[in-house]
Design goal:
Elements: E1 4-9, H1 21-34, E2 38-45, H2 48-53, E3 55-66, E4 69-78, E5 81-87, H3 89-92, H4 110-125, E6 136-140, H5 146-154, E7 160-165, E8 173-175, E9 195-196, E10 199-201, H6 202-209, E11 212-215, H7 218-223, H8 234-239, E12 244-246, H9 277-286, E13 297-304, H10 310-314, H11 317-322, E14 326-333, H12 335-347, E15 352-356, H13 360-369, E16 372-375, H14 385-392, E17 395-399, H15 402-407, H16 413-417, E18 424-426, H17 431-445, H18 448-459, H19 466-484
Parallel strand pairs: 1-2, 1-6, 2-5, 6-7, 7-11, 11-12, 13-14, 13-16, 14-15, 16-17, 17-18
Antiparallel strand pairs: 3-4, 4-5, 8-10, 9-10
Helix pairs in contact: 4-5, 5-6, 9-13, 14-18
Bound molecules: adenosine-5'-diphosphate and alpha-D-glucopyranose.
Length: 485
């Protein structure tokens, strides 16, 4: 039974369509909120993958002209989620990535594609679907950023609005000349509204006009109030005061369960850790690494972009060699980084293995087989791979930024002595500090008892959605109560 209704508006959701952690969050949070008595329906663009997987779909309403052509809104179930799918073939029926064309460039009409999503979100918020009246609208990232704007400028009584920032680096900025075409009134183009340095800012609009703003970790919530990490929005974020908070992500502990994971060679849990090396051997074979159980195997599962700092790891390959360690990387992204990794694997056979592309199964196999997972991010709003690593017994080696700082307990001497360490942290994110930390990992690796204790601490850490969902539930309920008063 649920007693509060939320409409989530988002551009991707696991397992339907995923390019990163946003999809994981959008896919898992509804189930966790249901256990808190909150029902979530999720509005997604009707990409081919979404339309294909939608079951029991009912046509709930249609629009004669949504950004240039007709559109229909279906409600159904897909991937275990209660879905509103926005079927607008002129906007979403395209092969490939939700945001990029085949050559990796942003679609030219992204402003219209995601403004359309937001317009339909606003329509649903105002009751366009019979029998559906959300108490709160939860808008994720810039793609849903105009939902609060449409609701605000409409003037009718509206549900509460919460905007969640998953990454301030993606802001959705478009020329001011699009204002009318996006269906925004002239007065919206102001410093209190959607205007941002002379342009229209989708994320800026959400930050300015939502009742509450959240981001995905407490540390990132503090960081983005500073000029160093605020990406031009720190002033506004400081102004929002207590309306801005950080709620840590969890992971779906059914999808990420080493005891029952069908994608790995050998299931195991914290009480049967002696089975885990079977997965290491399988990973070494898969990545063409020497079949050496004693070699410290570092893993990476990452988008390949400047944010993730994988270049710093590439700069440390000689050190990894000297330590007698190995490296297995799964990643996709920037062509230069892909090329550098390809070269590294070719130059260091048996030591460095690389899989380029997006592959859910390999991601699980790295988490289950690597001894340590390296995440040298320059910034990281939350990060999910370190949570998977904790749960799977791969020691997280992370930069002390954002959510990485909130989720890993550095195994310094004190932490080891008091039995609370779960990984290694370093700061600042530089090649030298990463090098020192890889060496620290190697020293710990030579003390198996200490290492095993750290791994066990990690595996016993609660990385589920239970606690985060309770925080979102409180936020949503407080807001709904405030709006009803
Ligand atoms: P971000 O969203 O910034 O990419 P997160 O750590 O929050 O970073 O989430 C990344 C998600 O995408 C995780 O679920 C991770 O396992 C997955 N992932 C990243 N790269 C790949 C890849 N190349 N293949 C498969 N899964 C990947
Ligand atoms: C973004 C961030 C990542 C976060 C994810 C889910 O992609 O880069 O740190 O974990 O969103 O919130």
């Amino acid at each position: 039974m649920t007693d509060l209704s939320v409409l989530a508006v988002v551009s991707e959701a696991f397992p339907l369509v995923k390019t990163g952690g946003l999809a994981d969050v959008a896919g898992a949070l509804p189930g966790a909120l249901r256990r808190e008595g909150i029902g979530v329906a999720t509005l997604l663009p009707g990409y081919p993958a979404v339309m294909r997987q939608l079951e029991g779909a009912e046509d709930v309403f249609s629009l004669r002209n949504l950004m240039g052509a007709p559109a229909r809104i279906f409600r159904g179930v897909a991937g275990g989620l209660d879905i509103f799918a926005l079927d607008a073939p002129h906007l979403y029926d395209r092969p490939g990535n939700p945001y990029l064309d085949a050559s990796g460039r942003d679609y030219e009409d992204n402003a219209f594609r995601f403004a359309a999503l937001a317009q339909v979100g606003a329509a649903l918020a105002f009751g366009a679907a019979p029998g559906f009246a959300p108490d709160v609208v939860h808008a994720h990232d810039w793609q849903a950023g105009l939902v609060p704007a449409y609701l605000h400028y409409d003037g009718r009584r509206r549900p509460g609005t919460v905007a969640t920032v998953h990454n301030l680096a993606f802001q959705g900025q478009y020329p001011a000349s699009l204002l009318a075409g996006l269906g925004l009134p002239p007065q919206a183009f102001s410093i209190e509204g959607v205007e941002y340095y002379g342009m229209i800012g989708f994320l800026k609009a959400a930050l300015a006009l939502s009742d509450r703003v959240t981001t995905v970790s407490p540390t990132y919530a503090a960081e983005i109030r500073t000029p160093e990490h605020g990406m031009g929005l720190d002033g506004l974020l400081r102004d929002r005061g207590a309306a801005l908070s950080g709620v840590l992500n969890g992971i779906d502990t059914d999808v990420w369960d080493s005891a029952s994971d069908p994608l790995i060679a050998q299931p195991y849990d914290v009480d049967s850790l002696s089975l885990r090396p079977v997965n290491k051997a399988a990973l070494q074979e898969k990545f063409g690494l020497a079949p050496d159980p004693g070699a410290l195997l570092f893993g990476v599962v990452s988008r390949l972009s400047w944010q993730k700092g994988v270049d710093l790891l590439i700069d440390n390959l000689d050190l990894i060699d000297r330590l007698g360690a190995q490296l297995a990387v799964l990643g996709a992204g920037e062509p230069q980084l892909e090329a550098a990794l390809r070269e590294a694997a070719a130059a260091r056979p048996g030591r460095v293995g690389v899989a380029l592309g997006y592959d859910e199964a390999i991601a699980h196999r790295i988490q289950a087989g690597a001894d340590a997972l390296v995440i040298p991010s320059r910034f990281e709003p939350c990060g999910l791979t370190q949570l998977c690593a904790l749960r799977y017994g791969a020691l997280p080696v992370v930069a002390r930024v954002g959510g990485l700082s909130d989720t890993i307990v550095d195994a310094n001497e004190m932490a080891i002595a008091s039995g609370v360490g779960t990984g290694l942290q370093f700061s600042p994110t530089t090649r030298e500090m990463l090098a020192a930390t890889l060496e620290r990992a190697a020293r710990l690796w030579s003390e198996p008892d200490v290492w095993d204790t750290l791994v066990q601490n990690g595996m016993l850490t609660d990385v589920s959605w239970r606690r985060p969902a309770a925080r979102y539930a409180k936020l949503f309920r407080d807001l709904a109560r405030e709006r009803a008063a």
